[in-house]
Amino acid sequence: MFEQFLGPDHFDIMPHLVAIGLAYLLAFPIGWNREKSERSAGLRTFPLVAVASCGFIQAAESMTADTPEAMARIVEGLITGMGFIGGGAILRLKDSVKGTATAASLWITGAIGAAVGLGSLDVAIMLSVITVATLWIMAPLKHFGHLEQEDGSDEVRKEK
């Protein structure tokens, strides 16, 4: 049935399954950190963002194989879309801004998925490692900074 619709050589699920699985695994620790910190986006959101970004790239591969400019437009759309989603995670309160680390994490998770989809596994792994290290290692160091709120929340105070 699929052969008639797609042709004999077009239905190969394994490479896509491996790539999407890897995107999921690389995003999982980021989601775990945000979930553990009780942020607005967490364990479900981050792997889904990576999988979606990877999926968009892989779904467009056959259409953009001969035109790198077309793939560049797909990547540009992902960058813009991730910025839009991240912007929704940022809350402006009376005298502070909250959610910037979650927004940045969403954006980089989209980059991880895109890197996996494009076959740049080394870039995807490094982005994941750097993000996880930043979120986990820098959190305790934040207590020593001047931006720490009395309630321990992840907020940045506005300059007056």
Automatic annotation (TrEMBL):
Spans through the membrane: 13-32, 41-60, 72-93, 105-138
Pfam name, any one: MgtC
GO cellular component: plasma membrane
Keyword annotations of the record: Cell inner membrane, Cell membrane, Membrane, Transmembrane, Transmembrane helix
Domain MgtC/SapB/SrpB/YhiD N-terminal: from-to ranges: 21-143
Chief localisation class: membrane
Matching InterPro entries: MgtC/SapB/SrpB/YhiD_fam, MgtC_SapB_SrpB_YhiD_N
Annotated localization: Cell inner membrane; Cell membrane
Record carries keyword Calcium: no
Membrane topology: Multi-pass membrane protein
Family according to the record: Belongs to the MgtC/SapB family.
Protein name as annotated: Protein MgtC
